[in-house]
Amino acid sequence: METSSFGIAIMAAGKGTRLKSRRPKVLHEIGGQALLLHVIAAARTIAPAEKIYCIIGHEAARVRAAAESTGVAFVLQAEQRGTGHALQQLKAHFAATGEALPDHLLVLSGDVPLIQPSTLEALCAFHLGERAAMTILTAVPTDPTGYGRVLRTSPSAAEVTAIVEQKSLAPDQISAPEINSGIYCFRTSALFAHLDSLSTNNAHGEFYLTDIAALLVAGHQRVVALKSSGSVDEVLGANTIEEMMHLDAAMRLGTARRLMAQGVTIFRPETCVIDAQVEVGSDTIIEPFVQLLGNTKVGSECRIASYSAVESTTIGDNVLLRHGCIVSESTIASGAKLGPYAHLRPGSEIGEEAHIGNFVETKKMKMGRGSKANHLAYLGDATIGSGVNIGAGTITCNYDGTLKHPTKIGNNVFVGSNSTLVAPISLDDEAYIAAASCITEDVPPGALALGRSRQTIKPGWVSARKAAASKRCE
Ligand code: UD1
Ligand code: MG
C-alpha cells in the first residue's frame, strides 16, 4: 500500500476533564507507556516522524517534553475548542509555514491507544481505493454509549450521511450500534476546504470534527466508513480511568499472548503486569503476580517466581529469581540465582552463576562470576571479583554522611559474617576477613584480617553473680 502521500495528525490537545486528573489525558499510561506514545508508535509505521503532526494544547510543554524524543512535529492549539478546532490549527500551521500539504491526512486520536498498524494500513488502503474525501474507521462494541455514531445511507452501504455525537442523538438513533473511532482518513484539500464551515452550535459549544462528515456530503464529496476487522478494544477511547484500565488490561493480556506465542510459559497471565516493550526468551517460566516493567529483557529458560518486580533490567539465560525479588535498572548474567527477597537497586551487575540471597540489598555493585552473598547484606558502590563469599550480615559502609566511597574486593576473597567494610577500602585477591570484623584498612592479597577485640573468659562468673544476688535479698 502506498502511504507516502499520507501525513498524520494526532489530536492530543484536550484536557481530559472526565479523568478528574491533573495529568493531561494523553500522558496517562497503559501498558507502562503514555497513551500518546502508543499512538505515535502506531503512526510511525505509516509515516516518518517529520510527517506526523501532534496537536498539543493543554499542558503543552509537558506533553511536548514526553514525546519530543520521537521526532514528531508539534502544532499548538492554545485554546481547546474541539476536535474540529484542533485541525483548524493544523491548517493554519501549513498556511503559516508554507510546508507542502500531504495529499491525504490520517487523523488519529491521542486517547485511542490500542490502534494497530495493520488496521491503519487497511484504513488508508480502503480510503484510497474508495477515492473518498473522508473515510471513518468504525466498530460495533457491545455498548456504544458515549461515542459518536456513524450513520450510513443503508446498513450495507459504504457511504455515510453523518456522524452524530451521543448528546445529539435523536430518540430513534440512540440504539445506533456503529461507533466513530475518532480515526479518519481525509483528502487533505477536501478537509481544509470545509474546516472553516464548522460551527459551535452543539451541546458542548465546540467545533466538532465529526460535523465535517455531513458538511462534505452536502458539498457532494464522498464520505465512507470502514468497520475495523481487528478486536473492538483497538478502537476504544480512554476517557475515564475505568476505560483506561480496561485498555491497560487488554494491552497487557496482548503482550502476555505475544510472549506465550514465542514459547514463554506464563501462569495466570491475567495476574501479571507486563509492559508492552518487555522481551522474554523461550522456555522461561513466569509465575503468577510477577511484574516485568519498562524495557526489561529476560533470556531463555529462566524462572521468575511470584511477587517479583523487575524494571528496566537485562537478565541472561537460566536465571532463577525466587519469590519477591525487587530489581531495577540492573543486569543479571546467565545462571545467576537470586532471592527470595533480594533487592537490586540501579547499577547492580550480577555475574554469571552468582548468588544473591534473601534480604541482600545491592546498589551500584558489580559482582563477578560465581560469587555469593547469600543472606542479609548491603553491598553498595562495590566492585567484587569472582569466587568471593560474602558472609551473612556484611555491610559496605559506603556513605560518610557527605560522600559515597568505593569498596573493592578481589577474586576468591572470603568475608566472614557480620563484617563491616568501611569504605574507601580494598580487600585484595584471596584475602580472608574474620567474622565480625570492622575493616578500616586495606587488606593485602592472601592475608587474614581480624578487626575485632579479643574475647575474654571469666570462669565461674555466672554462679558468683547469682550467689551475690541471693545474699543481697537475705
Ligand atoms: C470523539 C468523537 C466521537 C468519537 C470518539 C472516539 C468528536 C466531536 N467526537 O469524542 O465521535 O466516538 O472521539 O473516541 O470528535 N482534542 C484536541 N483538541 C480539542 C479537543 C480534543 O486535540 O480541542 C483531542 C483530545 O485530546 C483527544 C481527542 O482529541 O485525544 C478526542 O477528544 P475527546 O474529547 O476525547 O473526544 P470524545 O468525546 O472521545
Ligand atoms: Mg475521547
Summarize this structure briefly.
The chain is of the alpha/beta class. It has a domain at 6-235: Alpha-Beta Complex (Spore Coat Polysaccharide Biosynthesis Protein SpsA, Chain A).
Features:
474 residues, Spore Coat Polysaccharide Biosynthesis Protein SpsA, Chain A, binds magnesium ion, alpha/beta, single chain, seven-stranded mixed beta sheet, binds uridine-diphosphate-N-acetylglucosamine
Would you give an account of this structure?
By secondary structure, the protein is α/β, with parallel strands linked by helices. It has a domain at 6-235: Spore Coat Polysaccharide Biosynthesis Protein SpsA, Chain A. It is 20% helix and 29% strand. The protein starts with 5 loop residues before the first strand and ends with a helix. The mean pLDDT is 96. Magnesium ion (MG) binds next to loops.
Please mark out the parts with pLDDT under 50 across 5 or more consecutive residues, or reply none. none
DSSP helical segment count: 8
Gyration radius, to the nearest Å? 32 Å
Overall residue-averaged pLDDT value: 96
Report the span from N to C terminus: 105 Å
Morphology? elongated
State the helicity in percent bands: 10-25%
Give the beta-strand count: 37
Q: What's the main sheet like?
A: 23 strands, parallel
Bound ions, cofactors and other small molecules, one mention each: uridine-diphosphate-N-acetylglucosamine, magnesium ion
Strand content: 25-35%
* CATH structural architecture of the domain at 6-235: Alpha-Beta Complex
* CATH classification, class level of the domain at 6-235: Alpha Beta
The SS-based structural class is: alpha/beta
Write out the CATH superfamily name of the domain at 6-235.
Spore Coat Polysaccharide Biosynthesis Protein SpsA, Chain A
As for the CATH topology of the domain at 6-235, it is Spore Coat Polysaccharide Biosynthesis Protein SpsA, Chain A
